[in-house]
Amino acid sequence: MVKKPSCLTSEASTSSTTAPGDIFATTHWTVVLAAGKRSTPQSDRALEELCRTYWFPLYAYVRRRGHTKEDAEDLTQAFFARFLEKNYLAGLSAECGRFRAFLLASLKHFLINEWDKARRQKRGGGVTPLSLDWQTADTQFQIADTSEPSPDKAFDREWAVTLLAQVIERLRAECEAEGRGKQFVELKIFLTAGKGELSHADAAKTLGLDEGAVRVAVHRLRKRYRQLLRDEIAQTLADSADVDEEMRALFGAFA
Amino acid sequence: MSDPRVIPSDIPKCPQCGTPLPTGALAGLCPACLLKQGASDETATGGQAPPFHPPSVAELAPLFPQLEILELIGMGGMGAVYKARQKELDRLVALKILPPGIGRDAAFAGRFAREARALAKLNHPGIVTLYEFGHVGQTSRLSQTSETIPAGSTPQGGISEKNETGATPVLLFYFLMGFVDGVNLRQLLHAGRIAPREALAIVPQICDALQFAHDQGIVHRDIKPENILLDRRGRVKVADFGLAKLVGADVAARSAELRFGSTAADAPNEPGRRPALQELTAAGKVMGTPNYMAPEQVDHPNEVDNRADIYALGVVFYQMLTGELPGKRLEPPSSKVQIDVRLDEIVLRALEKNPEFRYQQVSVLKTQVEAIAPTLSNQPPIKNLKKTMQTTSHKTIWIGSAIGIACVALVIALLTFLAGLSRHTLTVRAFIDGIDVVKVSGNKLWFEHEESALPGKNIFVNGKAWTPGWTNNVSTEFAGLNAVFRTIDAQKIQITKRVGRGTVSIAQFPSPANDETLAVRIDDEDFGGADWYEVVISW
């Protein structure tokens, strides 16, 4: 069996990412794990990239735990400052296969053990804070704050939304680049529906195409979407074989 | 969803599942539904092993400033090959990169250099010249770029910069080789059976190249049609010497680990356990096509000698003569096609399971082939092949190869003709844009549009237009058709694609072993887009 990587050894992640046929696959998260304690400019950038993408779910979690807007901002920022410090990644091995689980476990750890300490220090502890968009965050949070799921569930939901937004944005950019921006706008709704659930005829009329062409375009959009989604999820995993499981876990957050 | 009472009415909800819709990039799209559709089992890869993803030309360019990388010309388990131009010398070269997953251990670099030095000494007109070798740094994709690598089901790391910091120890090993402007034998085989006379012109050249290498103690280990190149003058050049040894060791270890759940070291030689060939292929094509591997190479990959190459050449020879791979029960080529029985002897001896019974030197095989060659008459002379090859454009030479088209046209015409007479071939031809499925059971034939804009009029069955009208699942019963797939050996299903005025085979697989309904699914995107496709089923 393929060994699950244990955190923070450079050998660990390589064994799981080099399955035959998978030889070009390297994800952000495996880069971070591979670097381990001896972080490199590449792994720092990979980690920052991940954090920059997935910080909002953390903020949502902290808010859901009952902190005020201001406190939650401080807390999230302080957490990231600590998190991005070298050597902080040590000590959490069970969740390291998934960046999502790892980040949440780290945050919980931080909230329990380090919040007070961190609070006494200057904000950010002397480390340059990530530049995060708090204004939008609060609006976004209020919209998200509608059905009061548990903080953990809120975290997963927001994670999924963030991830999907990333994917849809990439898809949009790709379509735009190929001159199919208008098509994307009209057809993206098909991504949320199963085959045959939406009529191609209306979209065909709007786009001035025949129905067959729309059918094909939808099929291709779906296919590309699924690919990008899998890619994006894999970026956060140590073993890309876990994509399906991670997808189920995220879907579960909406159940 | 939990308690809906607390959802403020002004927040839009998904009409399908009631999840509140987020703002931002997802505006109007329901995350739950998106995930549900994203997880739908009709995934991009159909559950197969993720394909090999070579880096794009643009990604590779910064790593090789001395080259102008022109295009990707081939890929396989052993890496990818690009056509490039050496700027200084203004000479065309082939740049072969090994899969970056290979060679993570420090020892590989040493092994690579040793092997490459040995290969560089293989200076022979029948062997692709090695100009240069080495490695460049590869880092994983670290910044968002607009570049995307040809996608598969798994994420790919790209190549972003030349790694001079030495920070990420992932290296990209490469060979710079002579560029052969021509076709490979696989492509010729696709075009149909090669005339015995042509085979007899090709085989001795392969023998020369192999003997030269064997004399220097180098075994190819992966002789197969893809590695036998023919330039525009019909001269043979053997490629990828010794690569299987370099790449194979690395991959075999990992395959073994994956397949057998044991450690890398003990699996390949585990006593009493001989992995099935299919297992080896499934575990990693990187090892080469098992069909061409000598039995001893499967059992003890580390102990092969020149006679493994002779076996592989035997398989190639057999395939050139009969158009088929030798079956489990080895039948002489003359039982399949009309050829000189003396060729049987040569081929069967090369294919002896026990290396002791094979030719011990490939030069002996050559001598015997050459003894037969002049006595073969009434076959098209080899110079025709050369001539037709010279007139084709080099980029699409294999597709456009006149001989290929001629052969295929002949074969198709013949198949179509035969289909009318015999019950053993069914040819369904259609313009496919999207995904269509051809289904056969008994005397019934379906044509299903899974995702397609196909107007129903463009379907031909055994050459006759079939106009079932535009419905989603059309089926009809054919009097002459009686497709009961019971025995395995002679059956195969082939998907060919229209190219120019001819067709080329783009996929081939065995038909089911029982009398279930046969379904052949064609997704045009797997084969380069909307086009005329043909499914040829013979049994």
Question: How many domains of chain B, as an integer?
Answer: 4
Low-confidence stretches of chain A: 1-25, 122-126
Describe the main β-sheet of chain B briefly.
6 strands, antiparallel
The chain-level structural class of chain B is alpha+beta
Q: Supply the helix-strand structural class of chain A.
A: mainly alpha
Integer tally of domains of chain A: 1
Total helix count of chain A? 12
Which quaternary structure do these chains form? Answer: heterodimer
Query: What is the class of the largest domain in chain B in the CATH system?
Result: Mainly Alpha
The proportion of residues forming helix of chain A, as a percent range, comes to 55-70%
Largest sheet data of chain A: none
* N-C termini distance of chain A: 32 Å
Overall, the morphology of chain A is: elongated
Query: How many E-type strands of chain A?
Result: 0
Task: Please estimate the helix content of chain B.
Answer: 25-40%
Query: What integer value in Å does the Rg of chain A equal?
Result: 20 Å
Distance between the termini of chain B: 54 Å
How many strands in all of chain B? 18
CATH-defined fold name of the largest domain in chain B: Transferase(Phosphotransferase), domain 1
Residue-averaged pLDDT of chain A: 74
In short:
The complex is a heterodimer of chains A (255) and B (539). Chain A has helices spanning 10-17, 28-35, 41-64, 69-84, 99-113, 115-120, 134-144, 151-177, 181-187, 200-207, 211-235, 243-252.
List the helices and strands and how they pair.
The complex is a heterodimer of chains A (255) and B (539).
Chain A: H1 10-17, H2 28-35, H3 41-64, H4 69-84, H5 99-113, H6 115-120, H7 134-144, H8 151-177, H9 181-187, H10 200-207, H11 211-235, H12 243-252
Helix pairs in contact in A: 1-2, 2-3, 3-4, 3-8, 8-9, 8-11, 10-11
Chain B: H1 31-38, H2 57-60, E1 67-76, E2 79-86, E3 91-97, H3 106-120, E4 130-138, E5 170-178, E6 182-184, H4 185-190, H5 196-215, E7 228-231, E8 236-238, H6 243-260, H7 277-283, H8 295-299, H9 306-322, H10 341-350, H11 362-372, H12 382-390, H13 397-400, H14 402-421, E9 425-432, E10 434-441, E11 444-452, E12 459-461, E13 464-466, E14 473-477, E15 492-499, E16 502-509, E17 518-523, E18 531-538
Antiparallel strand pairs in B: 1-2, 2-3, 3-5, 4-5, 6-7, 7-8, 9-12, 9-18, 10-11, 10-17, 11-14, 12-13, 15-16, 15-18
